[in-house]
Amino acid sequence: MSLIALNKPFGTICQFSAHETRASLGDWVKTPNVYPAGRLDADSEGLLLLTDDGALQARIAEPRHKLVKRYWAQVEGAPDEAALARLSKGVDLGDYVTQPCRTAFVDERDIEALWPRNPPIRYRAAIPTTWIELAITEGKNRQVRRMTAAVGFPTLRLVRAAIGALDIFTLGLAPGETVEVAPRAPWQRVR
Based on the structure, what is the number of domains in the chain? Predict the structure, then answer.
């Protein structure tokens, strides 16, 4: 049984087949017969787990297992504690209401560990940006982006920092790098 951690670069699609204009997982992952356990959209970066075991893949990806996934979102504007509280309680996105989650501001010193994005996000001198962390157990399509937009702070950059106990920074992976990890590691609790 293999479990591969990839730091998925910005712009990479979560499929192995070649794409006309974007990088795919096949450009980064050379281990045969592994498949992503969950997805990250092309505009998101960070930790993606791949495995050759269907049960393990389901255990990581399916919300019923409540495996915590931590995201760092660089949002447009300066949310306050009230905005974080709204995110924490769950947000009505129209087609569903998100489950409660943990939120926090990301310490500026922690941001220094983050790699530069290529291409960088747009810079607007008159509009500040803020890094927040959301720890969710769901993972619906573009959920974090939709949540931050719903409370008035659109996401400019989104990085999945951790899945369960596996943290992208502890793993020390640069964008596009992979490492094999112990298959039982994701079930350990975080924070």
Answer: 1
Other beta carbons within 10 Å of 53: 16
Q: Yes or no: say if 8 and 48 are a contact pair by the CB < 8 Å rule.
A: yes
Q: What is the pTM of this model?
A: 0.93
**Exposed e or buried b for every residue in 69-78, given b needs 16+ CB within 10 A?**
bbbbbbbbbe
Which letter does DSSP use for residue 75 in this model? E
Report whether 168 contacts 80 (CB < 8 A).
Answer: no
Question: The domain spanning residue 12 has which CATH number?
Answer: 3.30.2350.10
Q: Which residues form the domain of 42?
A: 3-187
- What CA dihedral angle connects 24, 142, 63 and 134, to 10 degrees? 110
9: closest CA among 37, 41, 46, 34? 46
Residue 27 is a catalytic residue: no
Active-site entry in 27, 41, 43, 95: 41
* Per-residue pLDDT in tens (0 to 9) along the chain, 191 residues: 889 999 999 999 999 988 889 999 999 999 999 999 999 999 999 999 999 999 889 888 888 888 999 999 999 999 999 999 999 999 999 999 999 999 999 998 999 999 999 888 888 888 899 999 999 998 788 999 999 999 999 999 999 999 999 999 999 999 999 999 987 645 544 44
